[in-house]
Amino acid sequence: MAVSKRTPNRPKDAPMPLRKKDAQRASAPVIELADLKDRLGYFVRRLQVAIFQDFIRRLARIDVSPAQFSVLVVIAANPGLSQSELAKTLGIERARLVRMLHGLELRKLTVRLPSSADGRWHALELTREGEKLLARAKVLAAEHEEAMREKLGPERHRQMLELARGFDG
Amino acid sequence: MAVSKRTPNRPKDAPMPLRKKDAQRASAPVIELADLKDRLGYFVRRLQVAIFQDFIRRLARIDVSPAQFSVLVVIAANPGLSQSELAKTLGIERARLVRMLHGLELRKLTVRLPSSADGRWHALELTREGEKLLARAKVLAAEHEEAMREKLGPERHRQMLELARGFDG
DNA sequence: TATTGTTATACTCTATAACTATA
DNA sequence: TATAGTTATAGAGTATAACAATA
């Protein structure tokens, strides 16, 4: 497209001669990423957004977000753990977790039991209903993972999982 | 830690015998990730957050976010492109980009020039000040990338960049 | 009618700080 | 005093819808 700054003396109503660049962009715009090509964060972010979009879409029917899924999975595998432990494990703010658990509790999926070991703690557990929903969520999450494997290619998927898994904090 | 549900008959004020599990968690809590270990999205998300945290911290002194950096880079490499093209390229909502460009324009870093090719378009460009700030940002971003290379290990960094870069949408 | 940029709204997430109760 | 959970707030990001100007 033409840039006024570069043709400041041409009247605005004059016919606009298309330069080669204009014609190219009009039919098949190829935008240069330049320095972003060397930024790992840029590509990891784009990949993460794409993965989450697929996950969110597939688990929309049971209304489970990626964060909620991770919370349900970790509680199920570590019944009785505290909110602080859970928050630290998943990198969620404790304050955020409070509201999240409130929502899950309203849906009768999780419970905060008083810990008999320390009066300040809550022992987190899934309800029977929570376990049943998690079972359904795991099926959908496995389908999501398989879709990602197909989209990325099995070999790239395997390598990425291995590389990302090996990274801790 | 002890879970009340599992010892419902013990009075709350009775002394609490520590089971082995309790003692373990108190000293070195090892929380099981279970199913999350097979979720690429989980690890990619954790990695992306870690990368962004470093980037944000390093570019805080010039007040440039990852999204702002990507916008400045792409405008600089494609002067005169439209907001729609920019938004589509970076996966940013057009409505979001409007507010972002408003902020950058208030800081005299970018300008929206009227396009002489199409009255609906704005031709985006950096100001001289925007170019100067971007130059500084690129230096800090390169330092950030080097830090990531060290943190991940050069080989993992190279492989991840190659794998993630090869993924499109 | 379709597109570009814009405004407005609601919702989620992040980042803080402060408060309570318990230790 | 230190910690666990809670509440409140501000800011950023996402997702929509609707609108005016222009094609």
UniProtKB/TrEMBL annotation, chains A, B:
GO MF annotation list: DNA-binding transcription factor activity
Gene Ontology BP terms: response to stress
Pfam families per record: MarR_2
Ranges where the record places region Disordered: 1-23
SUPFAM superfamilies assigned: Winged helix' DNA-binding domain
PROSITE patterns named among the record's database cross-references: HTH_MARR_2 (PS50995)
Residue span(s) of domain HTH marR-type: 33-169
PANTHER family, sorted: MARR FAMILY REGULATORY PROTEIN, TRANSCRIPTIONAL REGULATOR, MARR FAMILY
Protein name according to UniProt: MarR family transcriptional regulator
